[in-house]
Amino acid sequence: MKKRIMRSIGVVIIPILLYIIMRFLWFTSRKKFHFITPISKHQHICVCWHSELLMAPQAYREIHPHFPSSAIISQHFDGELIAKVLQYLRIKALRGSSRKGAKGVLLQAFRKVKEGSEVLITPDGPRGPRYSMSDGAIGLALKANKPIFIMNYKAQNFWQLKSWDKFIIPKPFTKIEFYLQSVSLEGMELEEAKEYLQSKMLKNAIS
Fold first, then answer.
1. Of 1, 63, 151, 194, which has the fewest CB atoms closer than 10 Å, so is most exposed?
2. Distances (CA, A) of 207 to 44, 54, 81, 160, 168
3. Per-residue pLDDT for the chain (207 aa), expressed as one digit of tens each?
């Protein structure tokens, strides 16, 4: 009972605090955007690594400020917190993951894409292994025939958590370089596309 009450309180307070921290780090950092390819205003499937979730959605909103957007978020408690934080960035949550509720959430995601929404996915979420590549983003991009918007960043000074994803927290007032690109998977088979996307995402990832 006590745990349930604490979670109920936490799910209200923690997302507000996380959002304030996110925006503080965003506005105090010196940002440079590297467009490896042009990012058009056309619809994409959007991806970043799980360790980059603190800053990548904010970079996404900088590039596509008005696009209707949804994100695939896991069904566990941490996912609930992430979902509520992303609401402040006008990114709706689709609850499920590659491990739990995968089929249902991918059907939801495909419907959203058909309605004109972009969908954000962490291919190695929610539990890794780090920098692994699940089928979700690839399958969605191939089925919907949409390009993939890749978001990576590197911070000059940062903290790195001891979590499975080695989550990155840039230090205040540091320099952050964002690496953004649009790639097409047209004509590729699933495994070929997974290897291709993984190599593109790893090129500018923090080790």
1. 1
2. 26, 17, 26, 10, 11
3. 666 777 777 778 999 999 999 999 999 999 999 999 999 989 999 999 999 999 999 999 999 999 999 999 988 888 899 999 999 999 999 987 656 667 789 999 999 999 999 999 999 988 899 999 999 999 999 999 999 999 999 999 999 999 999 999 999 999 999 999 999 999 999 999 999 999 999 999 998
Q: How far apart are the first and last CA of the chain?
A: 41
The answer to whether residue 127 is domain-embedded is yes
How many separate domains does the chain show?
A: 1
For residue 207, is it within any domain? no
Residue 88 maps to a domain = yes
pTM higher than 0.85: yes
